[in-house]
Every structure is written in C-alpha cells, then in structure tokens.
C-alpha cells in the first residue's frame, strides 16, 4: 500500500478544485495558528522543530479543519509538513490525500476504539507531504512512509490537555524527519505500512486512489472546539427562540447517536481545554454566549457558576450506532420554568461539506483570529506562509 500511495502522490497533478481546497486550507490553518500566538503552548513547544511547533500551536485551539470520512484533522498536519521543507500546494495535497485515504482505511472502529486518527494517519501523511515537497521519486516516498510508521500513534485520552496538540505536532515532525532520512538514502520495507494497518484494525481494501485529491472535501469549524460539538452548538444558536433565558432553564435533554459523542470525554470540565471536549459545557455555552468563541473556552468561562449549573441539567440519550461525527442528527429539548419545552434538531452544521462556509463566513472567522490576521493573510501564498509562521512563532 505504501508503494501504491507513493506512486499516486508522485504522479499527482492537482486540478482547479484541488488547488482551491489547498488555498482555503492554507488560509484557515494559518489563521487558527496565529490566533494561538499568546497561548502558553507557544512557550512550551518553542524548542521543537518547525513542523512540530507549527502543528501543535495550530491545533491547540481546536479550530482547524477536519476530514469527516476519516475523522482526521488533515491540514494542521499537512500544511506544516509541506511548509517545513519549502513545499507548496501540490505537496500539501499529496499528504492530505494520503491522510484521507489512510484514515478511511483505518475506519471508524479505529477511532471508536480510542486512537487519535489525526496522529496515526498523520505521520505517514506528513512523510508524503514532506517527501513531495523535497521532490523525492515514488520509491523514496514509499521509504519515507515506511520510516514514519514507528511514530504513527496517538490516543484520545490526551483530549482536554496539552498532549492532544503536542501529539499532532509529533506526527507532523515524524513525517518530515522520515522524508529527510529517505532523501539521505535511508531504506525501509514498504510493507511495514500494510503490517501496521493490520495491527491497527484497518483494511487496504478501503484504499481508492481515484477521484479528487481529498475525497469528500474538508469541514471548516465555526466554533473553536471539538468537531463533535459544532452541531449541538449551532442547533441551539440557530433554532432556539431568543426569548428562552438561560436563568429560566430547568432541564436540557440531548438525543444523539452514540458514535457522535466518541471524543467528548469530559462531563464535568474545569478547564478551557476540557470544555472543548464536553457536550454538557458546550450546550451551556451555546445558551449563555451570543457566539461561543475563544472567550467561551477559557478556564474562567468554564467555571462560571451559571455554566456549571446548566451543565448539571444536561442529560444525554445516546441512541445506538453512528459511524462518524455527523451520523443521524442531534435533537435538543430545553425546558424552562413553567414547563415550556423547546426542541431543536440539526443534521449538518455550518462549515460542513454539505453546508460549506460562505466567503463571509470565512472572512468572519479570520477576523476573529486577530485584528492583524486579515491583513497578514491577504493574498498569502505558500512561500509567504512559511515566513509568517517563522516570524510569529520563532524557535527558541
């Protein structure tokens, strides 16, 4: 499979739609990375190599894009890996395409068992992005993939801590390291990827190299938290009458397929990072805040007495099944004093491939990432992007 994916990557000739996706991914990834410039992780990660540092900081706010079919954060791995070696859109797309296909080959059962697919599929994908960026032939791309296999790991228990974004950084760095070793002449057995896939419970039969570079496209987040929370938040924001005051709420019932809450492991969060993986808190923030943004996912915001009160009112009815984060739909019933009940439902949140973000949506998101960010990213290309990251997130 490594040889098949390497040949696909080496031969990739992006079409107009692929290049448009790559440009949007570049701008979105840079914006959410710049939004985290003041996060403590910048200091923590300052001694890491470029790809690791940029990927970790880009992921710490959990505002970066997602490939739905593979449940992987593609761009925060593949953009830094490509930029770290001076690569551009084609290198990114090669890595992104491999990451999507590997993630789909691993399947939902891999994610549902607790693996962080962004890291497991991410290390080989970063190796491809870096190898194509360097200009390696297919044989050496396959070697790079195999050399990345020992680092292809990451677990969901990291969610809600610095470890989540750091392990994404480790995946990006492992791929760049593997590509540079392959370029220097290191050899590896390409069948290591097939063996690894079997150990991880995946199937090479699911790999299909036809179609667009990134099959299914990418979902853009509108709220800075786990993708599993995008739908519940937007359902309440779009469907609940404005007349419902948070102080009047006495019960909140959430009904959703079990698979859609897989990453939501914090039920009584006490930190902003934990709040990004808490359905109970996300519902509270959607009721309390005009727009659940960066300010909603701080330690102080999570510990607001009213947010904690509302979170305790949430009951979750997990219906059987669900093999991706947007399986079925979410139904939320809010009860207020006097017994009035209001029910909202949603299948696709804004920003999902089925409800792609508008130009205005993207502009608003970029503006939220910092007053200077729109000007910094105006007309940005892959060559400029490397300089922006190097200047804003310097190594120690």
From TrEMBL:
InterPro entries: MmgE/PrpD_sf, MmgE/PrpD_sf_1, MmgE/PrpD_sf_2, MmgE_PrpD, MmgE_PrpD_C, MmgE_PrpD_N. SUPFAM superfamilies: 2-methylcitrate dehydratase PrpD. Residues 55-195 form the MmgE/PrpD N-terminal domain. This is 2-methylcitrate dehydratase. Pfam families: MmgE_PrpD_C (PF19305), MmgE_PrpD_N (PF03972). GO terms for molecular function: lyase activity. Residues 223-373 form the MmgE/PrpD C-terminal domain. It comes from Amycolatopsis pithecellobii. Residues 342-362 are annotated as: Disordered. Belongs to the PrpD family.
């Amino acid at each position: 499979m490594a040889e098949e994916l390497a040949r696909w990557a080496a031969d990739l000739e992006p079409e107009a739609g692929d290049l448009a996706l790559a440009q949007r991914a570049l701008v979105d990834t840079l914006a959410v990375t710049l939004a985290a410039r003041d996060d403590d992780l910048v200091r923590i990660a300052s001694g890491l190599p470029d790809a690791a540092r940029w990927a970790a900081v880009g992921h710490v706010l959990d505002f970066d894009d997602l490939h739905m079919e593979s449940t992987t954060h593609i761009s925060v791995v593949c953009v830094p890996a490509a930029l770290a070696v001076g690569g551009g859109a084609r290198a990114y797309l090669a890595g992104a395409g491999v990451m999507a296909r590997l993630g789909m080959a691993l399947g939902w059962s891999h994610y549902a068992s607790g693996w962080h697919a962004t890291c497991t599929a991410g290390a080989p994908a970063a190796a491809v992005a870096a190898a194509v960026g360097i200009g390696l032939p297919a044989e050496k791309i396959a070697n790079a993939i195999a050399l990345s296999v020992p680092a292809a790991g990451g677990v969901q228990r990291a969610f809600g801590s610095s470890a989540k974004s750091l392990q994404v950084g480790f995946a990006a760095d492992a791929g760049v390291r593997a590509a540079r070793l392959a370029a220097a002449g290191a050899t590896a057995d390409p069948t290591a990827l097939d063996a690894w896939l079997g150990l991880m419970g995946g199937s090479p039969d699911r790999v299909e190299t036809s179609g667009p570079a990134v099959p299914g496209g990418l979902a853009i987040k509108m709220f800075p938290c786990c993708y599993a929370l995008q739908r519940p938040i937007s359902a309440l924001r779009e469907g609940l009458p404005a007349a419902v005051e948070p102080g009047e709420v006495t019960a909140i019932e959430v009904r959703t397929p079990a698979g859609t809450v897989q990453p939501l492991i914090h039920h009584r969060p006490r930190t902003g990072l934990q709040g990004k993986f808490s359905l109970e808190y996300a519902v509270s923030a959607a009721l309390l805040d005009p727009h659940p943004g960066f300010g909603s996912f701080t330690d102080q915001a999570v510990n607001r007495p009213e947010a904690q009160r509302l979170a305790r009112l949430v009951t979750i009815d997990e219906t059987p099944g669900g093999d991706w984060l947007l399986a079925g739909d979410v139904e939320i019933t809010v009860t207020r004093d006097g017994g009035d009940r209001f029910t909202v439902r949603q299948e696709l949140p804004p920003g999902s491939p089925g409800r792609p973000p508008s130009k205005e949506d993207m502009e608003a998101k970029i503006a939220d990432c910092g007053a200077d960010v729109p000007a910094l990213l105006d007309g940005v290309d892959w060559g400029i992007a490397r300089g922006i990251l190097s200047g804003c997130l310097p190594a120690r």
